[in-house]
Amino acid sequence: MTERQNGTGTSAGRARGPVTIYDVARLSGVSPSTVSRALNNPGRLSADTEKRIREVADAVGYRLNPMARALPTGRTHTVGLILSDITNPVYFDLVRGVERVAAGRGYILILAESQESADLENETAQRLLASVDGLILVATRLDNADIRALAERKPLFVVNRKVRGIPGVVPDVVPGIRAALDHLAEQGHRSIAYLAGPSGSWMSRLRGRTLDLTAGERGMTIVEIGPGEPTLHGGQAALQGVRDSGATAVLAYNDLMATGLLKACRDGGVRVPEELSVIGFDDIFGSDFTSPPLTTIRTPLGLVGDEAARRLIAAVEKGEEGRRTPLATEFVLRGSTAPPRG
Amino acid sequence: MTERQNGTGTSAGRARGPVTIYDVARLSGVSPSTVSRALNNPGRLSADTEKRIREVADAVGYRLNPMARALPTGRTHTVGLILSDITNPVYFDLVRGVERVAAGRGYILILAESQESADLENETAQRLLASVDGLILVATRLDNADIRALAERKPLFVVNRKVRGIPGVVPDVVPGIRAALDHLAEQGHRSIAYLAGPSGSWMSRLRGRTLDLTAGERGMTIVEIGPGEPTLHGGQAALQGVRDSGATAVLAYNDLMATGLLKACRDGGVRVPEELSVIGFDDIFGSDFTSPPLTTIRTPLGLVGDEAARRLIAAVEKGEEGRRTPLATEFVLRGSTAPPRG
DNA sequence: AGGACCGTGTCAACCGGTTGCCAAACTGTG
DNA sequence: CACAGTTTGGCAACCGGTTGACACGGTCCT
Description:
2 copies of one chain form a homodimer.
Chain A: H1 21-28, H2 32-40, H3 47-59, H4 66-73, E1 78-83, H5 92-104, E2 108-113, H6 118-129, E3 134-138, H7 144-153, E4 156-159, E5 168-169, H8 174-187, E6 191-195, H9 202-217, E7 221-225, H10 232-237, H11 239-245, E8 249-252, H12 255-268, E9 277-282, E10 295-298, H13 301-318, E11 330-332
Helix pairs in contact in A: 1-2, 1-3, 2-3, 5-13, 8-9
The structure holds a DNA duplex.
């Protein structure tokens, strides 16, 4: 009765816009709802009807309109990822991990940046919320209340932060820190500086606390320096504090800061590792070709992204979070550590 | 007559799902279409009606449902970005540029990776096409026919590739290459190797051709080596070829390859820059802390991303591509070049 | 006073799918 | 052969917006 405007008189005629299920329905002599069932409700129809419709569908190059599907179902097949800083190399492998898993499961990745601002992060999350099935927050600066509020609206997954009742992943920092301190102890270091990241960073606090604990067990002392920006510049700016602390070795919140410190040392005539040992965190791109190559504590960022996407999508689809994979850090010995002088 | 299921008896009652224009309409005593007009058709309604509706809307926290809007309008307020490799640092600033501009204009960024495969790239583009208002292809491996086919369906923008009739941007490589060759000529280099990127890369060919031309003008000769993977590994693998060529200086297709070459030199006992001068391309993150720091030809990647997003969105909204900003490369002198021996 | 015109808000159709419910057809059984 | 049970496919409502057409009331003009 009501012929959709897309239709043309001749069934072979070129439709105006993209092909819809209405076109497929007309061409295969069934109703639109039957087409819908044939395509995403396998088994509901008789085998030959389903087969026939499928054949027509890809003969005419039918492609489902995701918006049209999203409207009645409320499911967009999209995951959102919010980072504080897109250009921070620490996220590259993570983003790739998320994208690969998402694409593999038929999901699309939406990426946004919060520019290290809690307000902007919240605003961005709100803006994205309507378009995604679930949201991954990486190293979020939001407080627990905001996080919970978001989690009430859509499945949420937090990376590098623990929030009671919210699924998330934070790689175990203990093994990496233990191995790093064992290594430093073996070389004779006793007093170690920790170059802290931003004051709002949960992960920086975790690393600091774990360092304190682990150092205590080994009779070593930790002096905390900072907080500082988690960037090259933040690391460069910290050299003076490090020198003042009298520590013979430094552990930085992340590789960016460690690399910045390395640079400041070179500029300031401090020889690394002879005069100062430096250890980074994460093992980002570039850490192996600094000079000297940076000794660091590796975080398996690719796997973290994988895990985040996998479990978020499980939550979206099955309402339960998927199996947890334990993820651990690992000490990577390169050239920026040596026994202290004297 | 037909009360939407969202409604509750009391107007103060909590709606089940998110607030819709139907809720706002009921609460402010007008029809849904009036609400729609009040919100995105300023001036069409009387000033107080509009104001009243706006107040109700944000009093109840109304948020537009992007899917619902996309259906009748065909506009998703989304731009897609397809990269060959998410973890390649060359793209970080570009991605950020695109994201910032997109977010600033109320658009959402969808990111996907083609893993250096033309087939996967095409498939990905098809998959995304229905969800985006426009697509940005970076260093695409697609052939011109595929690109044109995509451009027929949605606004398309290509970065680092010129395709007749398709809007795009490719930073002018001439100034950077001229300055680099002038520098090498001044130091006494005559025979220079070009470490080519993937054979499918339009940009690698452009850089190679421009190099040939520019070298010719200066009485220098170029030996092309490759093609090779545009990665650290590709650069490492090329050392033998470089030595065999007898060139005293190398220009690599990109910084990743240059850095790989640097590493191979260190491992192979070739001193840079004393025995071999190395110049990269792009000035990616990390190029300034290799050892020696890499001399390179900078591409303004952040601006490229900016330009791409700006002009794509202009095409989407006004049907015309926006104003073009000329973008040029620039020679950055660091420590990996020196006069040849003898 | 009558008519043209303008400003304002509503009606209803539409975008392209999904899905609960029902009817027709088909199957098997006593 | 009648009847219950099971397939199979269609109808129509719905998701949440947008927008062309129109009705209504008030102004202004002749």
